[in-house]
Design a protein that fits this description.
globular; Aspartate Aminotransferase, domain 1; 7-stranded mixed beta sheet; 4-stranded antiparallel beta sheet; alpha/beta; Aspartate Aminotransferase, domain 2
């Protein structure tokens, strides 16, 4: 009797940045951590690994100062503290970002002023920022989302015209470039993350960079409880936290740093291969970046046209998971950041609602009509997992899976 059961579909397990299969952690990191442990010195105030990491990273991207800290969120908090806003000042930021880049604004007593994004790149632009600049604007935070740099030429021209410092959230964009300059080096402060899923990792960790002498001093102090290590008469000069990186993290990061350029090159190569394989696919648009920029592909993002693909990005994600075991993230974040309860219900310190109590009405106006690019972009985007361990076989598998799913879902 001939079986009428369909043939079993083969599932290829993709490398993951959440475990060893998609990470470059290995002998070099083990040797460095062993050396740190055997030294008996695990605090960066006395050790050598964190200082070496800072010096090497500053040299790699061409800045005067780099300071390691405990997380990417700590990096953003340190940058905002260095800018030193007054309570009620506004800090312009993107509607599509991680909460770790937003709560530091509130902790420093400032108001996040959300601006819209380009619906194709999901990055903020000078055009979306400009209408929100006012007398209370203390700083602008730009996020180089997915490893694709913002148009910093236009953003810096706008910021400089108003005398406003720019903080670059470069957590997802190690070695990304805009017109020949590294992301994180064009604004006043650049913030990097070493969290588990970033290009290089220490599990948690961060780095802040700057070329400004006065800002560098405040960055260093804020990471160290505002204690003036090395000063003739050191004291705790202002309110600050302990955001130091340990020597164990520093050892891992120093070893990882030596692999960064190869990691970025591999991600870009495989991304280009997938882009080529998906060209011309109905209802699917591949990642877009400016011709003279370098995209470093923290993730690989498709834009899905729901007029052509049934159920759009959500339908495609479901098909990829069911048919081929590929886990992806439709919408990236399920809702814009300003729709989270912390902003909608103004939950901050006790029942005080501070600093929202100091906000102008327009700063907390989250009306949908103010964010057309945000809602349109999130509706279309499908975020595919990405890492440097992908091979030609993995890329072909993903390409075939997407093509098969599109054929099944096409209207």
């Amino acid at each position: 009797m001939v079986s009428m059961m369909p043939p079993t579909q083969s599932i290829l397990k993709l490398p993951s940045d959440q475990d060893a299969s998609g990470r470059t952690l290995g002998a070099e990191e083990i040797a460095a951590v062993t050396e740190a442990i055997l030294s008996g010195t695990l605090t960066s105030t006395k050790g050598t690994f964190v200082k070496a990491l800072e010096n090497r990273f500053a040299e790699m991207i061409g800045v005067k100062y780099a300071y390691a800290c405990s997380s990417g969120s700590a990096a953003v908090h340190t940058a905002i503290a260095a800018i030193d806003p007054e309570p009620g000042d506004e800090i312009i930021t993107t509607s599509i970002t991680d909460m770790g880049a937003l709560t530091p604004i509130l902790y420093q007593g400032a108001i996040p002023r959300f601006v819209d994004v380009d619906p194709v790149t999901l990055n903020v632009t000078a055009e979306t920022i400009a209408p929100c600049i006012n007398e209370r604007t203390k700083a602008i935070i730009v996020t180089h989302l997915f490893g694709n740099p913002c148009n910093m030429t236009e953003i810096m021209a706008l910021a400089n015209a108003h005398g406003i410092p720019v903080i670059e959230d470069t957590a997802q964009a190690f070695l990304a470039q805009h017109q020949g300059q590294f992301a994180g080096t064009m604004g006043t402060v650049g913030c990097f993350s070493l969290q588990q899923g970033k290009h290089i990792t220490t599990g948690e960790g961060g780095i802040v960079v700057t070329n400004d002498d006065a800002i560098a001093r405040r960055l260093f102090l804020y990471i160290n409880k505002a204690f003036g290590y090395g000063d003739p008469k050191p004291d705790h000069y202002f309110i600050a936290l302990n955001y130091r990186m340990s020597e164990l993290q520093g050892a891992v990061a120093a070893a990882q740093l030596g692999k960064l350029q190869d990691i970025v090159a591999k991600r870009a190569t495989t991304a280009a291969q997938l882009t080529e394989k998906l060209q011309g696919l109905p209802g699917i648009a591949t990642p877009h970046h400016a011709a003279d920029d370098v995209h470093v592909y923290w993730k690989y993002c498709l834009r899905v046209d729901s007029n052509i693909i049934a159920e759009g990005a959500v339908g495609l994600a479901k098909k990829l998971k069911e048919e081929k075991g590929i886990f992806s993230a439709p919408r990236y974040i399920q809702k814009p950041a300003f729709q989270c309860e912390i902003f909608e219900k103004q939950r901050t310190f006790g029942n005080s609602r501070f600093p929202f109590t100091l906000a102008k009405a327009e700063a907390v106006d989250y009306g949908r009509d103010r964010f057309p690019g945000t809602f349109s972009g999130l509706e279309q985007v499908l975020v595919l997992p990405w890492n440097e361990a992908y091979t030609d076989e993995h890329i072909q598998y993903i390409a075939d899976a997407v093509k098969q799913a599109v054929a099944q879902l096409a209207h």
